[in-house]
Amino acid sequence: EEKVEIVVDDGTVVTVNLEANDAMQFNTAEIKVAAGRTVKINLKHVGKMPLKMMGHNFVLLAQGTDVAAFTTAGVTSPDTDYIAAADSEKVIAKTKLIGGGESDSIEFAAPAPGTYDFLCTFPGHSAIMKGKLIVT
Ligand code: CO
Questions:
Q1: DSSP state of 78
Q2: I want to staple 29 with a disulfide (CB 3.0 to 4.6 A). Which of 68, 119, 131, 135 is the partner?
Q3: Ligand 1 centre from 55 Cα, in Å?
Q4: pLDDT tier at 1 (50, 70, 90 boundaries)?
Q5: In sequence order, what DSSP letters do the residues of 80-119 get, joined into one string?
Q6: Ligand 1 ion local residues (Cβ < 5 A)
């Protein structure tokens, strides 16, 4: 199988080929982006398990968000991809929640320089499915 680079910066757009699998893992825990870039997240669920059992998304949180409180509040909101309505303003960008074999892509402007948490909001997943977006 051909090796695909996870993060590719063409000078304008930083493309992130983010994979999530049936073992509840992302293929990277760190994404570095230069300020001013557009970030394109190509999330691919490379597993086979259905959304209701092994759903994955990419959710980028505003700085200062209490990640534990955010995920706890979201558990009772399956209709909004496990993001509590009251917390929607804490989300900078998010993909759809997807199941095995599915994919979703989003684009957003890199936020101000700093370190930001990203995670999968499916219940229980953020203990492992989490990482940092670092804008420099
Ligand atoms: Co997940």
A1: G
A2: 131
A3: 5
A4: low
A5: GTT--GGGGGGEEEE---B-TT-EEEEEEE--SSEEEEEE
A6: 56, 120, 122, 125, 129
Q: How far, in Å, from the CA of 19 to the mean position of ligand 1?
A: 11
* Residues 37-55, mean pLDDT to the nearest whole number: 98
Q: Which residues, at least 6 apart from 82, have a Cβ–Cβ distance to it below 8 Å?
A: 71, 74, 75, 97, 121, 122, 123
- Tell me, in angstroms, the distance from the centre of ligand 1 to residue 114's CA: 25
**Do 78 and 96 contact (CB within 8 A), yes or no?**
no
Structure tokens of 92?
């900078």
| Full-model pTM | 0.96
Residue 2: predicted pLDDT: 67
Ligand 1 centroid, distance to 121 Cα (angstroms): 6
Distance between Cα 47 and ligand 1 center (Å)? 11
**pLDDT value, residue 4:** 74
